[in-house]
């Protein structure tokens, strides 16, 4: 039974307790919300009503009849425009006759008449000439509380001229608006609950593995080696329960190595004094140490394997920081672009996203080169510094061009951090473990893809764009500081033998299957992701009137589908050799999901498109990588998997950089809904061409199809 299995139940119990606590907190927050929202709305209506009533009473002091007060309707419109939570303002006589009113939705006249009569009866104790004084003198709590009035909450305040009540001012809020606000905040609570579970899972996984599983695994491994006669390793001594056995084992191993070195020195000394005795001693020592492996020169090596869970949490943190701005970045860019062109063109709005994707793609080779020479930990920390500066600068940008520069700097930091985590996994796993190590890396990435947009939308709604960028910067800085502990065991990798890049490019360009995979699967997948999800979804939903929190919730569905369905489809593809089929079907599904948005331009239509995009790409992305390794077997054998897969990623990301520009051009011509539909049709077309091409050519190349090796 392994240490990991022994701690599975403990991990599950701890996570269950966290879930129970979070459920309790969420229900309590929802209960407090329901109890506090209506009183807060009452106070807001009262504040607005007192201010409006005071202005009207000031006008009445000039002996202008109430029904002839000029500009009342326009004044009401200005007040409501500044306070969209309110539905209407109505001024009635004391008998309930409506004199002035403003609002898109209004109660029926008979309802207002009843509310006026009830308000005057309740407030019959009012004295004085000012509403503010009356409020101080009023002893009935109901006098300051809004009451249901049909589909509204209505607050009625008397309007006086001297001692005479001339009318009543009604301030109303739509009851459905109140319910909608409660539902929105309940959705936010539910999203925060889900994100908290995912974050707790990631941190708990790291803590359990780092402080429980890993120390016991190390102890177990060294004990097995000692049992097999390997005395060349010692253990790192921690302060937990494994510390004292580690100290005992280290002392034993060091003493045995010291004893062997002492005997060897004595044998060497006897060689010059008594050769015969020295020979017998050497023979006896050889028999004594037979079957044992001791440390060279008597210096045991500290056994400390790489912690792949550290790479997972590092990936989770920096992707989380990068994704926080996803649901509002186009809206943020549009606000800056307005100063250059009002209204700004979609192409202008798309530039910050395009610059980010392009800068990240072009920085990947530099990041890989830096990781080879400086190691994963230092490269990750350098990337975290660049990303932190870029996020702070983006939040405080002076103008649109300034924003572009900071987004490019953020992208370079992103590339460094991405390459550091991926390089850590590659350096510290064997070819047989590469798939499982990559799965840890990808799972951390997908978990952050879920958390980032949802939390980013909520933060942008509650604290604004600049503060949200600040939160992302703090998260990136924290990830950089943690990298020194999480990725510390990764040494700089040995630079591989360099071969001609031109030869590899010629060979890949001459591989028809590789070209078809790039043109009809890899590039369209990234184009749909960046053009639709990252660019069109925020702008389209904003046009539909959705809040930034709602945009984040919709974008979150992509990550949920990819996280939970990706491993399932990967296992199916590997088990039944369905890689080509899943790439084709996944592309078709992703494209088909976008087409109905033109005919059903609603939030639900966009939501379905995002969900099907997530399902489709969960089917195709992992299978694409498997196809690349199969199709490019010959160049991989000649040039290595790193350069070939790096070329694949570079082409893919360059295609992704075109996504926002392409989507912006379509939006300028056909509107947002039309652009979504055309991109979906393009996805269907390319997936169909891919499927037909590989049905004709076959997924695996025949031996005579392989191009001849290119001299390097």
Q: Care to describe what's here?
A:
Helix 6 packs antiparallel against helix 9 and helix 12 (about 375-395) packs antiparallel against helix 15. This protein folds into four domains: about 35-180, Beta-Lactamase, CATH 3.30.450.30; about 230-300, no CATH class; about 305-495, MFS general substrate transporter like domains (Growth Hormone, Chain: A, Up-down Bundle); about 500-710, Growth Hormone, Chain: A. A five-stranded antiparallel sheet has the order 2-1-5-4-3, sandwiched between helices. A two-stranded parallel sheet has the order 6-8. By secondary structure, the protein is α/β, with parallel strands linked by helices. It has helices spanning about 5, 10-60, 70-80, 110-120, 130-135, 175-225, 245-275, 275-290, 310-325, 330-335, 345-375, 375-395, 400-425, 435-465, 465-485, 500-510, 510-545, 550-575, 580-590, 605-630, 635-640, 640-695; strands at about 90-95, 100, 145-150, 150-160, 165-175, 230, 235, 295, 300. It starts with a helix and ends in a 15-residue tail after the last helix. The longest helix has about 55 residues, at about 640-695.
